[in-house]
Design brief:
The chain is mainly alpha-helical. The chain contains seven helices and no strands. α4 runs parallel beside α7 and α5 crosses α7. The longest helix is centred in the last third of the chain and has 27 residues. It is elongated and about 45 Å long. It starts with a helix and ends with a helix.
């Protein structure tokens, strides 16, 4: 893409509410899809067990939390930004700090509420598991936002 095109993208102003709504719904769908194959805080996967995370669990809480945060937020962010229009993806990247942090907090809260409401848990949940999950979740959202928008703009 030429420099002129990038400057045009930089000028784009979208209506925040519909763009954020679309992003949040897509994030929610992507996150729910990960629960089909990988448990998060004891919720999921289909058929029970530990799904694709079984092999990483043996490496401890830090590895398990990091992997789960990466899968949950990395996949949902990649899916969301791949489906959205290029202008929307670029706008989200430009405003990512507030948006991604807000979406992260809401999804984390929903998982915690679901966990308490369903009375489920995992033997690998510890303080270090939560710290690793949160750190890798935030990192994967920011990295996937940058990678996806660079890919979409090329």
């Amino acid at each position: 893409m030429s420099k002129i095109d990038l400057r045009e993208f930089a000028k784009i102003e979208l209506a925040p509410r519909p763009t954020l709504y679309r992003f949040f719904v897509l994030q929610l769908l992507g996150a729910a899809a990960t629960l089909l194959v990988c448990p998060q805080f004891g919720i999921g996967p289909l058929g029970g067990g530990h799904g694709i995370s079984a092999w990483v669990m043996r490496y401890g809480d830090l590895a398990c939390g990091s992997f789960c945060g990466l899968v949950f937020f990395g996949f949902s962010t990649l899916m969301s930004l791949s489906v959205m229009r290029r202008e929307e993806a670029f706008w989200l990247k430009r405003n990512q700090s507030f948006i991604l942090s807000s979406v992260f907090i809401v999804l984390f809260g929903l998982l915690m509420i679901s966990k308490v409401g369903l009375s489920v848990g995992s033997p690998h949940e510890s303080f270090s598991y939560y710290v690793a999950w949160i750190m890798m979740g935030l990192l994967s959202m920011f990295v996937m936002t940058k990678v996806t928008t660079l890919w979409r703009l090329s």
